[in-house]
Amino acid sequence: MDDCTLPVMNTGLRGVDIASSKICDVQGKKGKLIYRGFLIQDLAQKANFEEICFLLLYERLPKKDELKDFEQSLKQKRQVPENVFSFLKTLPIDMNPMDVLQMATPLLIQNDTNIGKSGVENTLYSAENLIAGMATITAAWGRIRNNKEVIEPNNDLNHAANFLYMLNGEIPDDETAHFFDTGLVLHAEHSFNASTFTARQVASTRAHIYAAISAAIGSLSGALHGGANVRVMKMLKEIGSVDKIDNYINNILSSGGLIMGLGHAVYQTDDPRALILAPMSKRMGQIANQPIWYELSRALEKKGKAAFKAKKQREIFCNVDFYSASLFYAMGIETDLFSPLFAISRVSGWAAHVIEEQFAMAAPKPSLYRPGAEYVGDYCGPDECVYTDLDER
Ligand SMILES: CC(C)(COP(=O)(O)OP(=O)(O)OC[C@H]1O[C@@H](n2cnc3c(N)ncnc32)[C@H](O)[C@@H]1OP(=O)(O)O)[C@@H](O)C(=O)NCCC(=O)NCCS
């Protein structure tokens, strides 16, 4: 091939607006995250996950009786077809939970008599089926791979508490359930990130919502996307005690490595979700009698920010993964379930985007995503290459 220099291109679509959306606004400079016009701080303090799902899907806050009906409707969809569990039981127990979730999610179609029918009401029904069913699948896999019996949903509990119950077999205390619920609220939506773009792109082909959501789960499973808080936890365990932080940071920064949980592609100040998660992580550490993970995180944040500034002459800030790691870990959740937790929350945002992609007429968007690419491959001189038969090469 000729020696060529690749043209400078805008890789990864950074800074390129490719559609209009009414779902979420992320204001990186101001550190603001807004779902359908509402600040995340208000929502995290006042709304539960079910209310957030309603807001994202139906474009407004529910009235009291609407929320009650919506919660009831989700409860009715918690029970997944029995063959989902039989399928999970055939899988090797060391399979990555994100791969399991991606494979099992389309099986929820069996509970959906509306599949293939057009109309926003049908897709909303499917969205609820996915929100309820993916939580059941995740909890069931958490048990099956540990050789434990699957736990039936408990319809006296809300979505968050029921998930922890189905995972652990015990009804969580109110504070733990509340923190988990807030964790779901904080992860529900974040505009056009990689997995949401994946969902929208699949939806733009007019594939059904189950195809879009399982593709989004695949996108989220990548190490650069959903897996960062797993790596935050690994880092905290490697460090082990506050007196080892300086050494750890020096080694990381001098070798060009990353302090996980710091930095963000959009936020240029602290991620508002990290500011909400930090005190929850602290309190959860006290409840679980494991204060070490929060203490380590706090000290690492302070020292990591200072060392980064000294080295790069610019600031770095915490992202959502920095304190969610210690929060979920103190709840006793296995680290490789952190990404599925992200998915069982983000499915609400993905679903809202699928609906906007397929049904919102007002929002300008491509009818089918089909970006171009500049060809930098071979030619033979000024013309196309001449095909030589196999025997003559
Ligand atoms: C999230 C992330 C990809 C954002 O990247 P970005 O804003 O595009 O920042 P850049 O990649 O332009 O980084 C700018 C510089 O800071 C460095 N940097 C960014 N985040 C860093 C971190 N957490 N630790 C150490 N150095 C970091 C980069 O290596 C780069 O250095 P260089 O100029 O010498 O190449 C990046 O901060 C990161 O990888 N963080 C750690 C992983 C993580 O927590 N991911 C979850 C994101 S929600």
Topology:
Blueprint: E1 24-27, E2 32-35, E3 38-39, H1 40-46, H2 49-58, H3 64-76, H4 82-89, H5 97-104, H6 120-144, H7 159-168, H8 174-187, H9 194-204, H10 209-220, H11 228-239, H12 245-254, H13 272-287, H14 292-312, H15 320-330, H16 338-359
Helix pairs in contact: 1-8, 2-16, 3-6, 4-6, 5-6, 5-10, 6-7, 6-16, 7-8, 8-13, 8-15, 8-16, 9-10, 9-16, 10-16, 11-15, 12-14, 13-14, 13-15
Structure write-up:
The protein is mainly α. The protein has 2 domains: about 20-225 and about 340-360, Citrate Synthase, domain 1; about 230-330, Orthogonal Bundle (Cytochrome p450-Terp, domain 2). Helices cover about 55% and strands about 5% of the residues. It is built from 16 helices and 3 strands. The chain has helices spanning about 40-45, 50-60, 65-75, 80-90, 95-105, 120-145, 160-170, 175-185, 195-205, 210-220, 230-240, 245-255, 270-285, 290-310, 320-330, 340-360; strands at about 25, 30-35, 40. A 3-stranded antiparallel β-sheet has the order 1-2-3. Helix 13 runs parallel beside helix 15 (about 320-330). The protein is globular and about 70 Å long. It starts with about 25 loop residues before the first strand and ends in a 34-residue tail after the last helix. Bound molecules: coenzyme A. Coenzyme A binds near residues 228, 258 and 316.
